[in-house]
Amino acid sequence: MQISTTFQLAMNRRYPEAVAIAIAEDARGIPNPLTLHWVMPTALDPPMLAISIERTRYSLAAVRQAREFVVCFPSTTMSKEVIYFGTKSGREVPKLTACGTRTQPTAVVRGVLLADAVANFECVLESEMETGDHVLFVGRVVAAHMHAEPTVRRVYAFGHSGLAAACSATPV
């Protein structure tokens, strides 16, 4: 049986939910990662991924300026980064350096891959659309990478407090 509720309360029922990290070089040439909940494939031929970034985020300008980005699916060993990249701003701190995140060079776009991620996708910006308080970016995948170890698993969020609570003892 269904009951009427608010959009937000109903959306809170979607957990657990996979998270992703988008990385775009900012105007200073510094790779700036941002934790995202809203990522989806939009096409297989050519392969495309869409990401949604809140209008107030520093990363929004970085994606627009760079016109390319990397989408990373973090592993369960990256909980610290997932929280840090989603709660700190690249305006104030170079997040990859501050977090000590292991990176690898990209093959096609400017930026970096997250070495411990389950998978990384290099994307060239194809289009964007404003959607209320967020902007939806669609990127054409120009290179794909996956972790060499097949047993590495993806991290999930269990709500805003769920992931943070599970990792609160981990120093950021």
Give a written overview of the molecule.
- The protein has 172 residues and is of the alpha+beta class.
- It has helices at 7-11, 58-66, 79-87, 95-99, 160-167, and strands at residues 17-18, 20-25, 31-36, 39-44, 47-54, 68-73, 103-105, 112-114, 119-131, 134-146, 156-157.
- It has a single domain (15-159), classed as Pnp Oxidase, Chain A (Roll), CATH 2.30.110.10.
- It has five helices and eleven strands; from the N terminus they run αβββββαβααβββββα.
- The longest helix has 9 residues, at 58-66.
User: Largest sheet, described in full?
Assistant: 7 strands, antiparallel
CATH architectural group: Roll
Provide the low-confidence segments as ranges. Answer: 162-172
Output mean pLDDT.
Answer: 90
Write out the strand line-up for the largest beta sheet, numbering strands in chain order: 3-2-6-9-10-5-4
The SSE order reads HEEEEEHEHHEEEEEH
Overall radius of gyration: 16 Å
Named CATH topology: Pnp Oxidase, Chain A
Net shape: globular
- What's the domain count? 1
Protein structure class: alpha+beta
How many H/I helices? 5
User: How many strands?
Assistant: 11
CATH superfamily (homologous) name: Electron Transport, Fmn-binding Protein, Chain A
